Amino acid sequence: MEIVGELKEQIKGQLQSLTVVITSVLAIYLALVFQFNNAIEPLIVFAAIPFGAVGVLGGDWLMNMPIGFMVILRHHKSHRDHRESRDRGVRLYRGSAPT
């Protein structure tokens, strides 16, 4: 039996995504190794990731928010909007005209 069609494309996409994730994790680990000059301390940083995930999931659950990619995009957009409004306020405070 041969896998063809949409299932074959889905498996191919998942393997590509897995390759990207593994490569990214290794690149981040190597960057942390160079920064800390130690091979163990980056593992401590990686150990904190589950705590952050629990906090995000718990916050979404408490606020009755759906969990998905669009929530991440909305969260990123709200931070960008906040940063833009803050920068606009700094420009006004310093006397320059807003753009």
Walk me through this protein's architecture:
The chain is mainly alpha-helical. The chain has helices at 6-36, 41-47, 49-62, 69-93. The model has no long low-confidence stretch (mean pLDDT 81).
Rg measurement, Å = 21 Å
Q: What gap, in angstroms, lies between the N and C termini?
A: 62 Å
What is the string of SSEs from the N terminus onward? HHHH
Mean pLDDT: 81
Inertia-based shape:
extended
| Beta strands, count | 0
Helix percent reads over 70%
Q: Structural class, from helix and strand content?
A: mainly alpha
Unreliable runs: none
How many H/I helices?
A: 4
Protein traits:
mainly alpha; 4 helices; extended; single chain; 0% strand; 99 residues
Which helices and strands occur, and which strands form pairs?
Elements lengths: L5 H31 L4 H7 L1 H14 L6 H25 L6
What's a concise summary of this model?
With 99 residues, this protein is mainly α. Helix content is 78%, strand content 0%. It has a domain at 1-47.
